[in-house]
Design goal:
The protein has helices spanning about 20-25, 30-40, 50-65, 90-100, 115-130, 155-160, 215-240, 255-265, 275-280, 285-295, 330-340, and strands at about 5-10, 15-20, 40-45, 75-80, 105-110, 140-145, 165-175, 180-190, 195, 215, 250, 305-315, 315-325. About 35% of the residues lie in helices and about 25% in strands. The strands form 4 sheets. A 5-stranded mixed sheet has the order 1-7-6-4-5, sandwiched between helices. A 4-stranded mixed sheet has the order 8-13-12-11, sandwiched between helices. The N and C termini lie far apart (about 40 Å). Helix 3 crosses helix 4 (about 90-100) and helix 7 packs parallel to helix 8 (about 255-265). Strand 12 (about 305-315) and strand 13 form a beta hairpin. The chain has about 350 residues and is an alpha/beta fold. The longest helix has 23 residues, at about 215-240.
Length: about 350
């Protein structure tokens, strides 16, 4: 059985920065109202020529470059998203074309909302470890990419101020000498706390439903502050790893107050759980890989680091995993110049 480690990361953010003061020009809100309740001060939204697809492509290219591998070495390509630019073809299939991945690369999209990237990491690791075509090449490309500005009701201040667009990516390498990626996960069917209808969806009366995301903020807060620390503690126990031996806890950036509660419950140092929600907002499936790449890019994480990645969101879904980083993780200095812009 082959284990896996992360050997390359990449990310892409749209060119348009939207501050809380900008939001105050669109809806009845203020910088003070948003920042004190969420920790968000700005977020990125796609401008003309940018989309979930272009963000996924750019983040994937940077991750491959950081890993130092060629596209023809990739055996698995997964994209976690619920805002794909098209219902079909999948974003993963479009990446096969854009990046020049071999035609026998296993490509598909995965929708577990904000827990999607961790779901996809575990799925990719399992595919690389299994016997069969997906295991013929030892590398997997895993992307989390969202264009949430496309599904926001810009008259609803309880949701539109929270979300941003972006993409993050990681390259996994399988090796028989490495430990398995340890993961835990869960699902609880609920279309009331968080809901986004598909394109062309109709209500019970047969009328077309707006494609806007709706959310019960209090219900989500209760859910998240329960499952985030619980899943984190569970995956540490399953991996046989002490919290003190984890270099960074990379939590989904939904709301700073949620993360703060989880940190207190876990009893881990806050400096090992620092986030980036202040300048990205909630980017759903892109959140965890965006933060991971930012930490690699700024030198906070490097080869040999052990990390816990955890996400939670619509579904309801949650997932956490323990994994390690390995060389090359190159290109960090070059990525600093282009991070935050879509090519």
């Amino acid at each position: 059985m082959r284990g896996v480690k992360i050997i390359g990361t990449g990310s892409a953010l749209p060119s348009r920065t939207v501050t809380n003061d900008d939001m105050a020009q669109m809806v009845d809100t203020s910088d003070e109202w948003i920042s004190t309740r969420t920790g968000i001060r700005s977020r990125r939204w796609c401008a003309e020529g940018e989309s979930q697809h272009t963000l996924a492509r750019d983040a994937a290219r940077r991750a491959l470059a950081a890993a130092g591998i060629a596209p023809d070495e990739v055996g698995v390509c997964l994209v976690a998203t619920f805002t794909a630019s098209a219902a079909t073809p999948s974003t993963a299939c479009l990446l096969q074309r854009d990046l020049g991945l071999p035609e026998d690369t296993l490509c598909f999209d995965l929708n577990a909302a904000c827990a999607g990237f961790v779901f996809a990491l575990h799925t990719a690791a399992s595919l690389l470890a299994a016997e069969g075509p997906a295991a013929l090449r030892p590398y997997a490309l895993v992307v989390g990419a969202e264009e949430l500005s496309r599904v926001m009701d810009m008259t609803d201040r309880t949701t539109c101020v929270l979300f941003g667009d972006g993409a993050g990516a990681a390259v996994l390498r399988a090796d028989a000498a490495w430990p398995a990626l340890t993961a835990t996960w869960g699902s609880r069917g609920n279309d009331e706390a968080l809901f986004a209808p598909g394109v062309g969806a109709r209500d019970d009366a047969g009328a077309l439903r707006p494609s806007y995301l709706t959310m019960d903020g209090r219900a989500v807060f209760r859910f998240a502050t329960d499952v985030l620390p619980r899943a984190t503690a569970e995956v540490l126990e399953r991996a046989g790893v002490a919290a003190a031996d984890v270099d960074r806890f990379i939590f989904h950036q939904a709301n700073k107050r949620i993360v703060d509660v989880a940190v207190r419950k876990l009893g881990v140092p806050a400096e090992r759980c620092q986030g980036n929600i202040d300048h990205t907002g909630n980017t759903s499936a892109a959140s965890v890989p965006l933060l991971l790449d930012e930490l690699v890019r700024t030198g906070a994480l490097g080869p040999g680091a052990r990390v816990v990645l955890a996400g939670f969101g619509a579904g309801l879904t949650w997932a956490a995993c323990v994994t390690e980083l390995a060389a090359p993780l190159g290109g960090a200095a070059e990525a600093q110049d282009s991070y935050g812009e879509s090519d």
